[in-house]
């Protein structure tokens, strides 16, 4: 599994720059640059329906990543094979304002 550092601290799953979701989906079907990718699992902390279990879960260093960015060097059959990745999105309010900074195009 991949080590995930995530700067999208406005996401409900972010705990001290780690993700508590267990697995995430990275979007970017036609991405050729990092800016065209995004974390599809991002959920705004200020959205109305946040359950207690979401508030209380812990961040994990390693995470399973289902990735749609097929053009990335690290993508093998929709799984991320990088040992560690960075998701950026410090002031993100939506999924589209996040990105996988580790994306490296095969193109
Ligand atoms: S490094 Fe590449 S394969 Fe891994 S999550 Fe980022 S875009 Fe997807």
Distinct small-molecule ligands in the complex:
iron/sulfur cluster
Strand order of the largest sheet: 5-4-6-1-9-10
- Which ranges are low-confidence, i.e. pLDDT below 50, for 5 or more consecutive residues? none
**Structural class determined from secondary elements:** mainly beta
Number of strands: 10
- Overall pLDDT score: 92
Number of helices: 1
Give the overall form. globular
Quickly count the domains: 1
Helix content: under 10%
Main beta-sheet strand count, sense and barrel state: 6 strands, mixed
Radius of gyration computed on alpha carbons:
13 Å
Short description:
5% of the residues lie in helices and 31% in strands.
Characterization of this structure:
The chain has 107 residues and is mainly β. The chain has one domain. It has 1 helix and 10 strands; from the N terminus they run βββββαβββββ. The strands form 3 sheets. The protein has a 6-stranded mixed sheet, with no helix packed on it. A two-stranded antiparallel sheet has the order 2-3. A two-stranded antiparallel ribbon has the order 7-8. Strand 2 and strand 3 form a beta hairpin. The two termini are 25 Å apart. 33% of the residues are buried. The mean pLDDT is 92. Bound molecules: iron/sulfur cluster. Iron/sulfur cluster binds next to strand 6. The site of iron/sulfur cluster has 14 residues, from strand 6.
């Amino acid at each position: 599994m991949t080590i995930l550092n995530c700067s999208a601290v406005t996401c409900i799953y972010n705990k001290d720059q780690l993700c508590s979701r267990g697995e995430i989906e990275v979007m970017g079907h036609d991405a050729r640059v990092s800016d065209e990718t995004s974390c599809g699992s991002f959920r705004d902390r200020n959205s109305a329906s946040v359950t207690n279990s979401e508030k209380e879960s812990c961040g994990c260093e390693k995470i399973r990543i289902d990735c749609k960015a097929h053009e990335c060097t690290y993508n093998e059959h929709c799984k991320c094979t990088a040992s560690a990745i960075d998701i950026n999105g410090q002031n993100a309010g939506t999924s589209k304002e996040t990105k996988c900074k580790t994306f490296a195009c095969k193109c």
